[in-house]
Write a structure and sequence with these properties.
alpha/beta; Rossmann fold; seven-stranded mixed β-sheet; three-stranded mixed β-sheet; binds glutamine
């Protein structure tokens, strides 16, 4: 498996390490030509404004949109989830606009900018996933074709924080920062099938 990791900004090295630990080949992507021949792409967490600007500047947005429409699996984590969304109220920069979700940035307030929580994600099986949230977004609305995979207990309406739509996977947390590699494994399975 050859998985591209958007390497413009953010936590791309950590994703690389998880992929390599799982036996996949990780390719750092900074230019459109590096998107050829990949079995999947990860858009990491970081700062969505910066990443959007850089993806636009390097001409990566449209090629990625085209590849996703042809079936390329893409996983977005945290800021990467923001970039996958079709709707991000208040965000004036372009996103990939691939997933039928409305995402609220920095959804958990500035006073509690990061926290950790255990999430039941049935698709990953037991035990719960220990998830690290860093100035995290949440999924406010999800269209009919979107399957919500995980919710954050104890929040209003049990906020959706993990979702899948076909070959697109979005999580609001940072699965690359813990030793639990089930989210990446799940993505590799998606990419394989
Ligand atoms: N708050 C960041 C943003 O809006 C996302 C944070 C993250 O990726 N850890 O882009």
């Amino acid at each position: 498996m050859k998985i591209g990791v958007m390497a413009l900004q953010g936590a791309f090295i950590e994703h690389r390490r998880v992929l390599e630990r799982l036996g996949a080949e990780a390719i750092e992507v900074r230019l459109p030509a590096q998107l050829t021949g990949l079995d999947g792409v990860i858009v990491p967490g970081g700062e969505s404004t910066t990443m959007s600007r850089l993806m636009a500047a390097y001409g990566l947005l449209q090629p990625l949109r085209d590849l996703a429409r042809e079936g390329l699996p893409i996983m977005g984590t945290c800021a990467g989830m923001i970039l996958l969304a079709k709707s991000v109220p208040g965000f004036t920069l372009p996103t990939l606009g691939l997933m039928d979700i409305t995402v609220r940035r920095n959804a958990f307030g500035s006073q509690v900018e990061s926290f950790e929580a255990d999430l039941d994600i049935a698709a990953l099986g037991p035990p719960p996933v220990h998830a690290v949230f860093i100035r995290a977004p949440l999924i406010e609305e999800a269209g009919a074709g979107v399957e919500v995979l995980g919710r954050l207990p104890g929040t209003a309406g049990a906020a959706a924080v993990a979702a899948r739509q076909g070959r697109l996977l979005a999580v609001a947390f940072h699965p690359e920062l813990t030793s639990d590699s089930r989210v990446h494994r799940y993505f590799l399975e998606m990419a394989r099938s």
